[in-house]
Amino acid sequence: MLLFDLYRLLDFALTLLLLAIFIRAILSWVQPNPYNPVVRFLDRVTDPILRPLQQHLPPLGGIDLSPLVAMLLIEAAKMLLHRLFFGGF
């Protein structure tokens, strides 16, 4: 029971992170106010993941692909987490 709760907590945290990256990517299209508390929170939460990716992935035609790569990596981590907790394929 405790392992299942731990799995749910980690899965929920990764899902929230995925959502934060998605919202930040959408907001980047409309140039939000950088002093808005929501925008600042999203930046603080997602920067540790996106910055290293941005350093290694140059923009492709002016489009930053780091949110897409980060979201794919988070989904892969969620699948790995499921496999570690429950086994199987």
TrEMBL record:
- Reading the lineage from the top rank, the first entry is Bacteria
**Single GO cellular component annotation?**
membrane
The UniProt entry's sequence similarity note says:
Belongs to the YggT family.
Name this protein carries in UniProt: YggT family protein
